[in-house]
Structures are given as C-alpha cells and as structure tokens.
TrEMBL record:
Signal peptide: none annotated. Transmembrane segments: none annotated. GO terms for cellular component: cytosol. One of its GO terms (biological process) is lipopolysaccharide core region biosynthetic process. The keyword Glycoprotein does not apply. The keyword Ribonucleoprotein does not apply. Keywords: Glycosyltransferase, Transferase. Pfam families: Glyco_transf_9. It comes from Desulfobacca acetoxidans (strain ATCC 700848 / DSM 11109 / ASRB2). GO terms for molecular function: ADP-heptose-lipopolysaccharide heptosyltransferase activity. NCBIfam families: heptsyl_trn_III. This is Lipopolysaccharide heptosyltransferase III. The lineage of its organism: Bacteria, Pseudomonadati, Thermodesulfobacteriota, Desulfobaccia, Desulfobaccales.
Amino acid sequence: MNFRDLNKILVIKLRQLGDVLLTVPVFRALREHFPHAHIAALVNSGTEGMLAGNPLLDEIIVLNRKNRGVGKLQKWRNELTFLRDIRRSRFDLTVDLSSGDRAAIMSFLSGARYRIGTDLCRVGFWGKPHLYTHLATNDGSRHIVLQNLNVVGQFSITTDNARVDFFIPPAALGFVNDLFCQRCFRDSDIIIHVHPTSAWLFKCWRDEAMAELIHWLLDQGIKVILTSAPNVKELSKAKAIVSAIPSSAALDANLINLCGQTDVDQLAAISGAARLFFGVDSMPMHLAAAVGTPVLALFGPSILHRWAPWSEAMLQITSDSDYQRVYRNGAYHLGIHTVIQRDWECVPCRRDGCDGSKRSRCLEDITVEEVKKMILKTIPS
C-alpha cells in the first residue's frame, strides 16, 4: 500500500499506561518509512509519560477525560474544542490502536485522508468500520506489541526493530543515585526491585507468600526496593505485606520501602538500577522490561502470549508448540525474562478471580520455594 504525501501522522491509543508503552515499535516503523513526517500520539491524560522524551515522536496530544465538577454542556464544549483542534492540525494519516468508539470517531473527524483501524472495531456502534479507509485484521494469538505492529505492517509499514524503549529523564536518575548514596549502597550490591501489587487484585500473589519471599531476600543480604502505586487499594495491600515482614536492624538496612511514593520516571530508574524486577502482571513489569532489566513475573489468569514482559525473543514464538518449547520447570523462559504460570487447563481464564472471588487459585498455588529457586537462577551474576 502506497500512502502518498504524508506530512502529518497521528497514532491514537486511548488506553492505560502499559498499553501506551507497548505502542513504541509502531512509532519506529512509521519513522523509518516516513522520516520527514510530523508524528504525533493521542493518549489519555496520565499516560503521556510513557512516550515522553522518545525521539521517534514530534508531539504528544493529551485527552483529558477527567471532568469532575464540569457540567454536561461544558463537557461537550470541551470535547468539541478538542476535536476542532485535532481537525485543524490537518493530519494526513491516523492509526487507531485503541479500537474503541471514541477513538474511531476522533479518527474520522480528524479529516485525515487515510485512516487505519482494525477489524476489532466491528465491536461497537453500527457502521463503525466505515469510519476508516483501511482495516487491518487482528491476530489475537500474538503478543500485544506484535498486534500493534501488525496494524501498520499489513500496509507495508514495517520495522526490523521491535524494541520497546523508555527514556529515563536525568531527574529520575538523580533521584535513585541520591537514594543509594543515602543508604550507602555499593556497586557490588545485588538490588532487586519488588513491585507486588496490581490495580487488579486477582493478579496479585498471597500477601504472606510475598512477605516471606522478601524476608528471605533481605536475609540473603540482597537489597530490596519495594514499590506500589499510590491508590488506596494497592497501598493497603503493600502495607499488609510490609507488616508481615519480620523486622530487625540488619534486615531493615537492606529494605527501602517506597510504596506509593514514586512516579513513573522514578519507577523506571529504580528498575534500571536493579539486577532483577520481581512482581506480577502490571505496568511496572512492562516498564522494567523496557529499560532492559530482567523480569521474573508471576502470572495467574492473564494471557501470557499477549501480556508477557516484552523481549524480542517473543518474535520467534508464533504457536502453542513454541510456548511449550520455552516452558521448563513451571516457568516460561522468554529471552532475559521469566514468567511463572501454572500449566492448568483453566489457565488463562481471564476471570476476576476464581468464581468472582478476586483471588486466583493458579496464583496462590505458586510456592515461595519455587520462586526462590527461580530468583537464584535468574539473577545475573
């Protein structure tokens, strides 16, 4: 497919933090094919940090969907003003990686000559597919990074570099450096970044198991930096884990508890300074992978082939037999990353815990001992 005279390109991803981060290779494909074009991203407010500082983009447009205290009339005015500004930007091509109704309408009203979407857009209001000029078929059997690349790849916009990058700003690097200096950490210290929480509780391991594992790490002389999101649900879970860790002067010296105290940039800097990231299926897991830190993740009902920590080793995994090939001793070995997930008939179920309980038996079945063994195998020496 030959897209001619493309001066301005808009990529739309109105999803969550991790979803936005995993679009990076699409921007690389566009930049390689249209090196002189102005390339912009349209994302939800609060997710723009995933792309900040990335030289593949020229502009990040932020949609503010938080309208608390704003009347319906003013809300519509704000929406119309935003759409008018998008149209005035005169984009030649839009690439909708969201597949939602709002993104489809924005793509159409942008006035772009070429509008790429996926056949996932058939879910939604009647006639929605007709808002696009080009529809890509979706391959849900592959990783979300490859699904994103496939949207533009079907129209000959490809790249040989599927790396997901995150650019850590100097201020965040300075934050971590100061932190390590204050705690007298040495270059020879083994540091593990542990992020035990997720916004979805059914993705989390047992509190007592996480506490036991952290206690073991500290007892081994390993430095642990513990983080969580600042929202009430995750912070409450993190506090329950910390309260279950036995305390002593020696152990406390090895633990830095930053739960609820870090922003995205600082999370990335912490992961970048660590030998290993340990956690569950969450945005910080994807962030750690993006800064090149080996990941050990626990998966429950999540679909591994879509949401595993990204490694270009995933390019070679195209079938169920490929996944079985990399499954050894209860874990999937994906390049520098490792995912422990039960090989049960019901996994992955994508459910909100077993029987709606918010607790996943496939996660709770994972033992502390098997995680210990995997950590000892995966920590780079």
